[in-house]
Amino acid sequence: MVKHIVMWNVVESHEGMGRQELLAEIKKRIEAMKGVVPQITEIEVGIDFSGSDAAYDVALYSVFADRAALDAYQVHPAHEEVKKFVGAVTTARAMADYEV
User: Fold this and answer.
1) Which of 24, 68, 72, 74 stands the most exposed, by the fewest C-beta atoms within 10 Å?
2) What is the mean pLDDT of residues 34-51?
3) What local confidence, expressed as pLDDT, does residue 50 receive?
4) Euclidean distance between CA atoms 66 and 76, whole angstroms
5) Pairing relation of β-strands 17-18 and 40-47?
6) What are the φ/ψ torsions at residue 57 (nearest 5 degrees)?
7) How confident is the model at residue 3 (pLDDT cuts 50, 70, 90)?
8) Alpha-carbon distance 59 to 95, whole Å?
């Protein structure tokens, strides 16, 4: 089993959307991949409420059967589309992939 965790910081505004709208839109778009991208076993998106300087704004936790499933997810057209949007509205990204 592979766990894929990603965290982002989000811009203040983009194309008329404010920060909170952007956070909600990221969450919606990522979670919409469940059932569309068959390799996703579990997916969860959380929006930070702590306000800590050390915190990221939004976090993705996802699970895949193995590395091959994660690799297939990475290039799936639905994921590519989400990546375009998220890349346009974020300023920083951190991630980790690990096997359990």
Assistant:
1) 68
2) 97
3) 97
4) 16
5) unpaired
6) -75, -35
7) very high
8) 9
Q: Does domain 2-99 bear CATH number 3.30.70.100? A: yes
Residue spans of the domains in the chain: they are 2-99
Predicted confidence band of residue 72 (pLDDT cuts 50, 70, 90): very high
Structure-block tokens of residue 97: 């992939």
2: exposed, middle or buried (Cβ count in 10 Å: 0-12, 13-18, 19+): buried
| Alpha carbon distance, N-terminus to C-terminus of the chain | 6
Give the β-pairing of 90-99 and 40-47: unpaired
Other C-beta atoms within 10 Å of 38: how many? 11
Q: Is 15 left (phi over 0), alpha (psi -120 to 50) or beta?
A: left
CA dist 58 and 22 (Å) reads 10
